[in-house]
Queue: 4 jobs
Job 1
Amino acid sequence: MLIIARCNGWTWYLASDFQFYFTTPLLVFLYSRSKYGLMVTGTFLFLATFTVTSLLSSFYQLPVANPYDMRKMSTVMYFMEYYSKPYCRYGPFLVGILLGLFIYHQQTPLLRTKVQAAIGWLCALFSMFMVIALAYAFEDSLNIYAPAKAIYQALHRTVWAVAVGWIIFACGEGYGGFISSLLSWGIWAVVARISYACYLVHPMLILLYNGLQETLMHYSDINMFYLFLGHCSVTFIVGLAVTVMVERPLQELKPSLSCRCRPTVHL
């Protein structure tokens, strides 16, 4: 995995994702045995990831986004000590696991009135707005590092995950409105099937485009918007091709190979 990550730097998340999934059986086991034990364990894990992330952010004085200044090793420290570490990203995964367990075992609807749903939607949208707004409000400073930045680093991804989790929950409860209809479009199933291939190829396409430029590009919102649309379109096309020609054939080939390798027992 380390060799792959050096060649394809964005695959660092595969290692983190594996470690996240490695803890899932324990959480499922605790849920089946004792919901109180799951609550205690979940609270401990949340506090642990929040504490570690805030301490790292404070110790290295990390900004709220990838550093653009010329401090020595600032970008390296941001990526190596915070951005790619699983213990700094465990919060959103834990939110998803707990929400999935709750929805799977839920017997009766939790939301009973439109007022409850409206309050939940307002809180979710406000949380998303604050996550984005605070990222702009916390301007990077080389001399003063406010504790609020460390707190933001520790909480913002988990808060965003909670807001997204509310959207999923509200849609499942029948209070999603047009959002539920939008997320129910069949096109998202296609996008989901090619998402892994898109994840693998999209940085290559961006690097290829940047490497082929012979002149500097003038930055503007409209230029970035066009580049975003272009990169997304090409990524989906290439991701679809990789899925159809590589991923799906190998998935279909795997069962046949496993059948051939299975020993035959004659009675």
Note: The CA atoms of residues 45 and 91 lie 8 Å apart.
Job 2
Amino acid sequence: MPQLNPNPWFLIMLLSWLSFSFLIQPKLLSFTSTNLPFNKTSTTIKTSPWTWPWT
């Protein structure tokens, strides 16, 4: 069963994760998001209590 032999695939997996971590990820994180967050003022809504007819 050759799929159980990790010798050729472990190095490929390791190199792919390292390339993602050190090369691709910082480039992706350097982009600015299009919808920047801002502080939204919270509005309080005054609600009146419901009058139940059976109480």
Note: Residues 1 and 7 are 13 Å apart (CA to CA).
Job 3
Amino acid sequence: MTLVYDFSTVPHYLQIIKKNIFLKHSSQVPVSVCSPSCPPGFRKAARMDKPLCCFECITCPQGEKANQTDSLQCTKCPWEMWPNPTQDHCVPKTQEFLSHEDPLGTTLMATGISSSLVPVAIFGLFIHHRTTPIVRANNYSLSCLLLLSLSLCFLCSLVFIGYPKYKVCPLRQVTFGIVFALCVSCILAKTIMVVIAFKATRPGSQLRKWTRPRVSYLIVISCILIQIFLCIMWLTFSPPFLELKSESNSGVLIIQCNEGSPLAFWSMLLYLGLLASISFIVAFLARRLPDSFNEAKFITFRMLAFLTVWVSYIPASLSSQGKYMVAMEIFAIQSSTWGLVICMFFPKCFIIIFRPDMNSREKLMAKQKNLSN
């Protein structure tokens, strides 16, 4: 039998209950739970060995948010978004790419532009002294073409800076590959022409007809056409494209150009390495030839520097990502180009500017005679 008490019929009981329930000198009614409410950004979790009404507030895991009070569970943000610091709503992730406003991007851009002016200045110096022996003795026309290609090598690094657009991604690596193929092809042609020129001076040599400038141009064009063919195949079957890469436990959205086909990308780099390796081997074998201005020795040094930079770039690029991977490639482009400029043209510029007495036909013939003896 259940007993039911109707307190409304006994007014003095209500007064007693009110005195026991309400706190003295307080206008607030006490909360009849053993845990406070969980604010947004937290979720409820049951407490062990406590009644069901007792719980504790736990912060949402990384990458999740709770936008309501007393949420029972947290929800993940979309892949392109990330929780705010209080984890009560999602905000767009921070975009990461090598921008022009970034200090690293600004430095590389300024270095590329200023460096591109150096080969142009040397080109002007060669034009002004084009009739002197030191300029004519080292294939003047091919040297001018090499200087222009070196300036383009510095400028092509600027294509990698800025927001990777859909139209820019397919052209970045292709531009780099073709321009560097032109540069290395000029060096390879100069290396071969140095050997042919020395061999052709022997009595009865049949190599005199191969010392014409058109032979060096044919070498350059042939090497570039192969690189162009590789790039066309790359763009046709698996071109580079814009990629938004989001790490699962990171508030950064990496915006980069996916190379499309890794095989095509590494084929392009390996072809440049092949041209540089052939130039290095030929120049190394011809380093003791009686060349008045040590052209073969300079080619050996610059090809060694070129190969060293790009061999060290491979592991560095594989261990980095985002804007730092792009910065590593720009650094490799600029440093290898500087190595070519310094090893190839600085000794000649030094003689033209500071030792004009050595830039004469008499000095050239005397030195050539001493080396032959």
Note: The longest strand covers residues 252-258.
Job 4
Amino acid sequence: MSQKKEARPPIILRRRTKHDDLPDEIVLEILARLPVKSLLRFRCVCKTWYSYITNPNFISTHLLCYNNHDGGYVIYMPRTSVHRAYFHRPHSQICTLAFDRTFETISEFRIPFTFQSGYASLVGSCNGILCFTDFITPKSNDVYLWNPSIRKFKRLPNTCLNQTQVLNVAHGFGYDSLNNDYKVARFSWTGIKWIPPPEVEVYSLSSDSWKRIELGISWRPNVLAHYFNYTLTFPFVSGHLHWMIEIIEEGDGQGWRLTSMILSFDVNSEKFKELPLPDDEGSCITKCLTSFKEKLALIKFERSVQPHSMLLCSIWVMRECGVFDSWNKLCVVPVESSLNFIGFTKYCLILVRKRSQLVSTNSKLESKDKIFLIDPETLHEKEISYIGNHIDNRLDIAAYMENLALLDGENLVSY
């Protein structure tokens, strides 16, 4: 038996006019607060939206608007040792994205390019762009910029200097806020003594080229050797790149002494200057530079007077960039050994490994390590979940955020 269809209400169509569209300013405000994944899809909506999203000014605005209220993210990868690079087969390296304050894993990214040595070295992270170089091949010209959030990377052009005599290199990566440009600084020298001084080059993403610049700093004549402190990635703070440089000097008589200095590079003006370390008594075993809440920080490991071979990890913070008197000792954290130190997050939460007592596993006694996050201001410790084989090595850790940079340009590779 046929059933009579219910009558549907009439559909009233109204012709759209230009006055129904949102103003361009409102559309841009909405788009600037959307995640990168959505914006990549919305490029296909119309030509107007495509031009909006790929515009450099919009990319800068999105970086400020979308990442202004997030809780903070870090990206990390296991740090390759010289022993592993020389005596083990290369492997595909993985970067892990995690929440900054909890270190809970969000996702993993496989590095989409390879180096001659087979091992990538993280130079730094800036606004979500990662910079990598070859870990163990100084003469290699391979430098990559990679934006995982848009799945694109770029190999930088070869440097303008002759690399045949180069024995050592060091890099830094930062953002020129005045010109909305990303820059890579590269040192190259032929021996342990900087005579002649190291050659310095700066790469500009906007021009896609390298240029030579002068170091502009005179070294003391009694210096026997210089070398960079590679304990952590070189921090980019307040528009400046910073390198810790260890100096071996001739002392009084026939002896020698080890001193340190900070080399600061203004990414905007492309000028160098020397920064002194804070005055501090005590026997320092090792030290390194990092950042603490977007300020330059110095980490020092010293021997403790307490038993059980404990070390004291002291954290100094430069409250005002470039001002020596603004150095302030923030806190002192006891650690079992400098070897148990893994790294720091953006907010300077300290990742340390603590050895537990022997436990029985399948009729075997094993010692399992635990990983803790330590807040340097409250000294509160929080055990975090096991992070795979990464605890066997120190980690290269850098701040991370979503960004549309590298969306368009020359010599970009999508994957």
Note: Helices lie at 24-31, 36-42, 47-54, 56-66, 82-87.
